[in-house]
């Protein structure tokens, strides 16, 4: 039986990493999830959004953030989801032959950074650099470095000398664990291949527990990687607040000239749904163009670009609730991250969301079988129900 694919809310990792300050039910949920994972019945997957939201906002917050990173590692292992940008690119574009890109969102190697982060570009090909320098030497000088077609000890001494700066960069400015540092060092002295070093680097960089420790080692570099989602969230909140202010001014102007404010609200709602109907298709085209990709035809946004459509539809419903509403909800900086997470909803079986986000998702009328769970404490019962249903389905097929 295929494991149930689960996407937790970022707050769940916070709560489960701090169960000593929670009610006993949280410990029961954690024990349940660990047990179900060990039995191979569930896969809990993490994304870049989880990593960014787990990050500390100040050096003083590092201990609590470390607990969150460790909890992600404990529950998810290396079961990850590709970066949102890569999901969207695959959904909206096709390759040069006109073939639609296959969207493989789930990964089991811990990949969560964008595909454009190429470890090989961060790490020098020291053998090639040394070889290029040796080619500039005379014949007799070259013999000191190459003998019988093989590098000599002088060769590796030259590698170490020529790339001391890169070695320091790799060990000090990247989130590397002890094993990765050891293998990188061996690469610089010629004991392992470049491919061995790159594999070790990639494994270490994508390890969320190692990434969490990086904040203590290099606060400025690490924090710079995890600020973008919070910054965009703040801008989204600011935009919604300004939109609400302008909407209220329009309401007052229409009321002042004797128009019925309810009619204005109804007109605004109709306009909202008209814009919503065309938004996914247009945004898909715009994104494909912006990344220099060939846009694929989007006939059914929910089918052809499910992640983008889900996130965009949720964001617009949140905006409607905060702007075009008689009793508006106060916008929050977490509104954009919630929509960001929703990119993955079509690709999992169970999606955890807080009460407000879950209510907005219901308004979106999602055409997916994904089960949305509003409370973490309700998750075990939902998982048991899915397993029970699957067992019944198997029984009917076998019978």
Which terms summarize this structure?
399 residues, 10 strands, four-stranded parallel sheet, alpha/beta, two-stranded antiparallel sheet, 21 helices
Helix and strand topology:
Elements: E1 4-7, H1 10-16, H2 24-38, E2 42-45, H3 48-54, H4 62-76, E3 80-81, H5 84-92, E4 93-94, E5 106-107, H6 119-122, H7 126-135, H8 139-143, E6 146-147, E7 150-151, H9 153-162, H10 164-172, H11 178-188, H12 194-205, H13 208-217, H14 219-225, H15 228-256, H16 261-290, E8 294-295, H17 301-304, H18 306-322, H19 335-341, E9 350-352, H20 355-363, E10 371-373, H21 379-398
Summarize the structure.
This protein is of the alpha/beta class and about 400 residues long.
Q: Can you tell me the overall shape? A: globular
Instruction: Tell me the strand order in the biggest sheet.
Output: 2-1-9-10
Estimated radius of gyration: 26 Å
**What is the chains' assembly state?**
single chain
Biggest β-sheet description:
4 strands, parallel
Q: Which structural class fits the helix and strand makeup?
A: alpha/beta
Number of strands: 10
Unreliable residue runs:
none
The number of helical runs is: 21
Q: What's the helical proportion of residues?
A: 55-70%
What gap, in angstroms, lies between the N and C termini? 17 Å
The average pLDDT score comes to: 80
Strand content: 5-15%
């Amino acid at each position: 039986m295929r494991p149930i694919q689960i996407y937790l809310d970022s707050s769940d990792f916070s709560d489960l990493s701090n169960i000593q300050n929670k009610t006993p039910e949280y410990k029961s949920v954690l024990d349940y999830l660990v047990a179900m994972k060990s039995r191979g019945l569930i896969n809990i997957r993490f994304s870049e959004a989880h990593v960014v939201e787990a990050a500390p906002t100040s050096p003083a917050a590092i201990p609590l953030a470390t607990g969150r990173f460790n909890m992600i590692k404990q529950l998810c292992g290396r079961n990850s989801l590709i970066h949102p940008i890569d999901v969207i690119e695959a959904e909206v574009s096709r390759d040069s032959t006109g073939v639609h890109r296959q969207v493989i969102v789930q990964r089991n190697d811990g990949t969560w950074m964008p595909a454009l982060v190429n470890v090989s570009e961060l790490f020098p090909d020291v053998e090639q650099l040394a070889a290029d320098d040796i080619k500039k030497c005379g014949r007799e000088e070259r013999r000191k470095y190459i003998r019988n077609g093989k590098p000599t000890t002088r060769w590796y001494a030259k590698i170490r000398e020529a790339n001391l700066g890169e070695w320091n960069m790799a060990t000090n400015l990247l989130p590397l664990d002890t094993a990765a540092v050891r293998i990188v060092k061996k690469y610089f002295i010629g004991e392992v291949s470049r491919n061995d070093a790159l594999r070790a680097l990639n494994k270490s960089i994508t390890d969320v527990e190692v990434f969490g420790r990086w904040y203590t080692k290099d606060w400025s570099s690490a924090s710079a990687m995890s600020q973008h989602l919070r910054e965009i969230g703040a801008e989204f909140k600011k935009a919604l607040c300004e939109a609400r202010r302008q909407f209220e001014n329009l309401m007052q102007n229409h009321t002042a000239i004797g128009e019925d404010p309810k009619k204005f609200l109804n007109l605004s709602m109709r306009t909202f749904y008209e814009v919503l109907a065309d938004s996914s298709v247009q945004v898909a085209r715009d994104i494909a163009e912006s990344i220099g990709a060939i846009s694929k035809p989007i006939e059914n946004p929910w089918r052809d670009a499910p992640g983008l459509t889900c996130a965009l539809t949720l964001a617009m419903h949140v905006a409607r609730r905060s702007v075009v509403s008689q009793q508006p909800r106060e916008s929050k900086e977490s509104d954009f991250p919630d929509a960001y997470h929703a990119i993955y909803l079509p690709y999992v079986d169970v999606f955890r969301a807080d009460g407000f986000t879950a209510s907005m998702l219901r308004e979106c009328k999602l055409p997916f079988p994904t089960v949305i769970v509003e409370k973490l404490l309700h998750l075990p019962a939902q998982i048991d129900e899915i397993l029970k249903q699957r067992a019944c389905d198997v029984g009917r097929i076998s019978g």
